[in-house]
Amino acid sequence: MSSLQGKTAIVTGASRGIGRQIAERLAALGAQVVVNYAASRETADEVVAEIAAAGGQAIAIQADVAKVEDIERLFAETIERLGKVDILVNNAGAMTNRLIGEVTEADFDRLFAINVKGTYFACQQAMKHMGEGGRIVNFSTSVLGAMMPSYSVYAAAKGAVEQITRQLAKEFGPKGITINAIAPGQVRTELFTTGKTQEQIEAFSKMNAFGRLGEPDDIAGAVELLVGDRAHWITGQTIRANGGFN
Questions:
Q1: Longest CA pairwise span in the chain (Å)
Q2: I want to staple 19 with a disulfide (CB 3.0 to 4.6 A). Which of 14, 74, 139, 140 is the partner?
Q3: 130-134, 170-174, 183-187, 219-223 — which is least confidently predicted?
Q4: Could you give phi then psi for residue 213, rounded to 5 degrees?
Q5: What range defines the domain where residue 167 resides?
Q6: Which CATH number covers residue 62?
Q7: Which one of the listed residues 37, 120, 151, 154 is annotated catalytic?
Q8: Is 151 a catalytic residue?
Q9: pTM (2 decimals)?
Q10: Per-residue pLDDT averaged across 226-233, rounded?
Q11: 3 within a domain of the structure (yes/no)
Q12: pLDDT, tens digit, for every residue of 23-74?
């Protein structure tokens, strides 16, 4: 029997990149998976179809995590259609790569709405609906351990995610729910590569111990560790899944 047999998982931002890989990994382990998307219905349906073709179970639900009413609807529809929520992976995120003089108010508000507000209020819904043994995985970034020009707003938002994760651990603990964060390094996704030259990408590849970019499957493996039964004593932590980046 698969290790997540009988579990129901919500993966936000699961129509592509890391989120897609996580959704496929959790489904392969036996979970029913909600493939959340904001706008990419066609790609979300492709993920659902791939999971089904591999013998798994998944549904697609649209919700913009920058809107609290959408987050509430995401949980309500999940429970209506699948009965419960056991695992929440707050993967949906936004990034900008601009120096401080180029950052607009719209950039700032967008990053905090998706990365911080989305994570916080999804956790709020998990508190309301998740039962004993639940698992929450939030997403930070290993950029927080570096001093990198042009990442100030993104790092600020993800720093808030790490504090949300840490501060909520003792609120979720009495319900037997763990909450942790994963902080990837440079991963080969559209979010990371957009706006970067090949030379920049190659330079980033040399910043970790393995001399390559991470792949979405590398991060899905870290999520698998944290949502399993054996991780019941790990909570309030940030796992830097970055190949030794510094």
A1: 54
A2: 14
A3: 183-187
A4: -70, 150
A5: 8-187+218-239
A6: 3.40.50.720
A7: 154
A8: no
A9: 0.94
A10: 95
A11: no
A12: 999 999 999 999 999 999 999 999 999 999 999 999 999 999 999 999 999 9
- Residue 46 domain-assigned? yes
How far apart, in whole angstroms, are the C-alpha atoms of residue 94 and residue 217? Answer: 20
Owner of token pair 């796992």: 239
pLDDT score at 1:
44
- The single residue listed with the structure tokens 């999940």 is 78
Give how many domains the chain has, as a whole number.
1
Q: What is the model's pLDDT at position 16?
A: 94
- Is the C-alpha dihedral spanning 103, 106, 112, 115 positive or negative? negative
Task: Write the burial class of residue 105 (CB in 10 Å: 0-12 exposed, 13-18 middle, 19+ buried).
Answer: exposed
Residue ranges of E strands in the chain: 8-11, 32-37, 57-62, 87-90, 135-139, 178-182, 238-239
The whole-angstrom separation of Cα 2 and Cα 134 is: 17
Question: Would the pLDDT of 237 be above 70?
Answer: yes
| 65 within domain boundaries | yes
Predicted confidence (pLDDT) per residue in 66-79, tens digit = 999 999 999 999 99
DSSP annotation string for 172-205: HGGGT-EEEEE---SB-SHHHHTT--HHHHHHHH
User: Reduced to 3 DSSP states, what percent helix, strand and coil does the chain have, rounded to the nearest 5?
Assistant: 50, 15, 35
A 10 A CB-CB count for 77 gives 15
- DSSP output for 139-183: E--GGGGS--TT-HHHHHHHHHHHHHHHHHHHHHGGGT-EEEEE-
Tokens matching residue 107? 């950039």
Residue with tokens 């729910």: 177
